[in-house]
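Entry 12.
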Amino acid sequence: MYPHRPPTRHVADALETARLKALLRTSMQQRLNGLPHEAFVAAGKHLLERFRGIPFSEDTGVFLFASMHGEIDTWPLLAWAWRSSRDVALPRVERRRMTFHAVTGQSDLERGVFGIMQPGPHCPVRDLSDSSLVLVPGLAFSRDGARLGRGGGYYDRFLTDRPPGSRAIGVCLDVQVSDDIPVAGHDQRVDEVWILSSVA
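Predicted 3D structure (tokens):
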């Protein structure tokens, strides 16, 4: 029988980071659960206003997400993007892998993992380019771009080795801002964070 050995410093640090992340996830989820639905709707309206003010070219690909309960309402933004004939891509999760697919309207969507609306398998895959803009959800963000996701690592893997000209923008409410987010080596930062008001 092998003698018991204490974990190495690297393993101990990783375990402590995971523990702190779990605590922050619980805390943030409790904060969000305490907000009324109207707060997420109001933030969604502010998101649309902010997005419409971005001076990007017509051929810029926008990588958005279809919000679920307890997230900033992205449906007004999606509706505007489709009406404006933007090149819109949304995430699809299959076998723990997230890919983005071109979506031209709500009819292209189907219910996926956790009930989240996602592109159907017929929608073509879209890859990031130097001019792409990605809106990134999360449970918490720091003002300098650190992000706490829900634990699946989907966006961390997607944003790894992305083209240098692409922009990743985290979107959150003010209650989701934390100056002390635990960060592991594989965690990907966003380029900027939009803190959106929950008041109409």
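Annotation: The CA atoms of residues 142 and 178 lie 5 Å apart. The mean pLDDT is 92.
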